[in-house]
Design goal:
Helices cover about 30% and strands about 25% of the residues. By secondary structure, it is of the alpha/beta class. The chain has an 8-stranded mixed beta sheet, sandwiched between helices. Strand 1 (about 5-10), helix 1 (about 15-25) and strand 2 (about 30-35) form a beta-alpha-beta unit. Mean pLDDT is about 80; it is low at about 220-230.
C-alpha cells in the first residue's frame, strides 16, 4: 500500500518547512507528496523542491489566482486543485496536511497498517497534538489538542479537522471536494462522504501535530520573516 500526502500551501514559508520536514521524517517510505501552492506571494514549490528534490516522491501544482480574483470567485480553488492531484495518483490512502501543521513520524506507517487491518473501512480519524511552530518541534510535543476529545461517530458538524482524517483513495472516485468557496472544507467533505458510506472509525493513535500560534488566521504577511519579504 502507498499513501498520498496532499499539502496545500499559501504564504507560510516559515511554517511549511516544519510540515515538509515531518514528511521527510516518516518511518515508512511508502508515500508520495502532492504539493499545491495556492497562488502565493512567497512561492512554496521551490521550498518543497529544495527539501524533497524533484524525484518520485514529489509532484507540484501551482495556482495563479490573485487575491482579488479569489475574492471575486468566492474563494480559493485549492479544493479543485486537491481533486486534480488526488485523481492523478494511484495511492491507496489520502492524508491531508495543512501548511501550518506536521505529521506524526509514524503517521503513514500506522495509517497504512490500520487500513490493511480494516479492509471494510473507507476513512478513519485519529488524535492531533498541538504545538507552537515558532518555539517547538512537533515530534517532542505530547500536549493533546481539543480536537482529541472527539472519538465517537462522525457527523458533518463535529469538531474534526482535515489534519485528523485519512481516506481511502477510492472515496474520491465517488466524492470530491466541493469548491471554490473555502468556508467549510472539513464539514463539506464529511457530509459528502457520509452520504455514500458510514464506514468510518476512530483509529486510536496520533496522526498529526496542529500548529497554534498568535495571528494564525490573520494577515499572513504578519507571519513572514524579513528575509521572506525581501
Amino acid at each position: 500500500m502507498k499513501a498520498l500526502i496532499v499539502c496545500v500551501y499559501y504564504d507560510r514559508p516559515n511554517m511549511i518547512r516544519n510540515a515538509l520536514q515531518s514528511v521527510i521524517d516518516q518511518t515508512s517510505p511508502d508515500w508520495h507528496l502532492a504539493f499545491i501552492d495556492d497562488g502565493s506571494t512567497v512561492p512554496g514549490a521551490p521550498i518543497a523542491e529544495e527539501m524533497l528534490g524533484t524525484g518520485t516522491h514529489l509532484s507540484t501544482l501551482v495556482g495563479s489566482d490573485s487575491v482579488e480574483k479569489k475574492l471575486k470567485q468566492g474563494g480559493s480553488r485549492h479544493g479543485q486543485y486537491m481533486n486534480d492531484m488526488i485523481h492523478g495518483e494511484d495511492a491507496d490512502i489520502v492524508i491531508i496536511l495543512c501548511d501550518d501543521d506536521a505529521l506524526h513520524p509514524e503517521c503513514v506507517e500506522n495509517c497504512l497498517r490500520w487500513f490493511e487491518e480494516n479492509p471494510d473501512k473507507l476513512w478513519g480519524y485519529g488524535h492531533v497534538n498541538d504545538f507552537n511552530p515558532h518555539e517547538e518541534k512537533p515530534g517532542e510535543v505530547k500536549r493533546g489538542s481539543d480536537l482529541n476529545k472527539h472519538t465517537g461517530p462522525v457527523d458533518p458538524v463535529c469538531r474534526l479537522d482535515s489534519t485528523q482524517v485519512v481516506f481511502r483513495r477510492e472515496v474520491f472516485d465517488k466524492c470530491s471536494y466541493p469548491y471554490p468557496a473555502t468556508g467549510a472544507l472539513d464539514a463539506d467533505i464529511y457530509s459528502h462522504v457520509l452520504a455514500i458510506t458510514d464506514k468510518v472509525e476512530y483509529m486510536g493513535f496520533v496522526t498529526q501535530y496542529k500548529g497554534r500560534y498568535p495571528g494564525q488566521m490573520g494577515n499572513r504577511t504578519d507571519l513572514l520573516a524579513p528575509d521572506d519579504l525581501a
